[in-house]
TrEMBL record:
It comes from Macaca mulatta (Rhesus macaque). The lineage of its organism: Eukaryota, Metazoa, Chordata, Craniata, Vertebrata. This is Unhealthy ribosome biogenesis protein 2 homolog. InterPro entries: Ribosome_Biogenesis_Reg.
Length: 329
């Protein structure tokens, strides 16, 4: 098996046990400014050496470079964790992550540059970002309290940066885009909280999703969002954002009704678990928005008619999927 042979070469070359101290010097001591000036010359810097070579041109065909770099990033992080991850090394295993992420093209995109990458490149790199984030989640590398108290929220700031990139360059046709967002909100809902309205717009309300696998990824994300805010007892706050997006002017084309069968099923399941007080608060919010922002302007306005249909379907979903006040039905 060629892959196994490649992994064995990497383990025996750049992930030897005796190189752990060099990785710590490069990724931890240097990061914290603990390396003395004289010692800098003798710093082995294995990560810098590997990544400099990885992003350089000329070792493969230009048409393959993006794919080679992206898949190498995923493999390098996998092998790094397999070689060095243990209790107490969480910060080390995080510090290598931004360095690897920086090799991907999407890490350098500015606003309005989404079209700088082809759909194929987006798919390749988002699949790698998904693998990186899943590795963080599966290995418990991100501890919210430890990151805030001991490390000045270094991890949180990085995940916020990734979230902003994903939201600013929405890729709704690609299932991995939804899965990356789902993992981020599972790590810490505050990572996506500042962009909650844009998340709801680009991943749900304004998203045009037709392909089956993409729909399933979208539904899983929506379910995670609703579950998260239900656990936080903040569903009315979430619905405030949902209603705000529905009621703002549509962008280039008229916004279609929001409750397709998939999202409707997800929302129904969530509503059944909520206490009546939150349901009533949400119900009141929908009615208030309808009466103040839609009803007065409904006549002869196609956009308002669609908004009315969305709000009506939401209200119907809430009313017919809430528990009665005695919780018996």
């Amino acid at each position: 098996d060629i892959r196994s042979q490649i992994e064995a070469v990497f383990r025996g070359g750049i992930f030897q046990p005796e190189l752990l101290s060099s990785y710590k010097e490069e990724l931890l001591d240097q990061q914290q400014g603990d390396v003395k000036a004289g010692a800098m010359k003798n710093l082995l810097a294995p990560i810098d050496t590997v990544l400099t070579r990885l992003v350089s041109a000329g070792y493969c065909a230009a048409s393959l470079h993006t794919s080679v770099v992206a898949n190498s990033v995923a493999l390098l992080y996998k092998l790094f964790l397999e070689s060095y991850f243990k209790e107490g090394n969480q910060l080390l295993c995080f510090q290598v992550l931004p360095r690897l992420f920086g090799c991907l093209k999407i890490s350098h995109l500015q606003e309005e540059q989404s079209k700088a990458l082809s759909t194929s490149d987006w798919t390749t790199e988002l699949l790698v970002v998904e693998q990186l984030l899943n590795s963080v989640a599966n290995n418990n590398i991100y501890n919210i309290a430890a990151d805030r108290i001991r490390h000045e929220e270094a991890q949180f700031r990085f995940y916020r940066h990734v979230a902003e990139l994903l939201i600013n360059h929405a890729q709704a046709p690609i299932p991995a885009w939804f899965r990356c967002l789902k993992t981020l909100i599972s790590l810490n809902h505050l990572i996506l909280e500042p962009d909650l309205d844009d998340l709801l717009a680009s991943a749900w309300i304004d998203a045009e999703v037709t392909e089956f696998r993409t729909k399933k990824a979208q539904e899983t994300l929506i379910h995670t969002v609703f579950q998260t805010y239900a656990k936080l007892r903040q569903v009315p706050r979430l619905f405030e954002e949902v209603l705000g997006v529905i009621c703002r002017p549509a962008a280039e084309t008229l916004r279609q009704p929001v409750l397709a069968s998939g999202p409707s099923t997800v929302l129904s399941a969530c509503l059944l678990e909520l206490p009546p007080s939150q349901i009533l608060d949400t119900w009141s919010l929908v009615l208030e928005k309808f009466q103040s922002l839609v009803l007065p302007y409904l006549q002869s306005d196609a956009d308002m008619a669609l908004k009315s249909l969305s709000l009506s379907s939401l209200l119907h979903c809430i009313m017919f999927n809430m528990r009665s006040l005695d919780s018996s039905t």
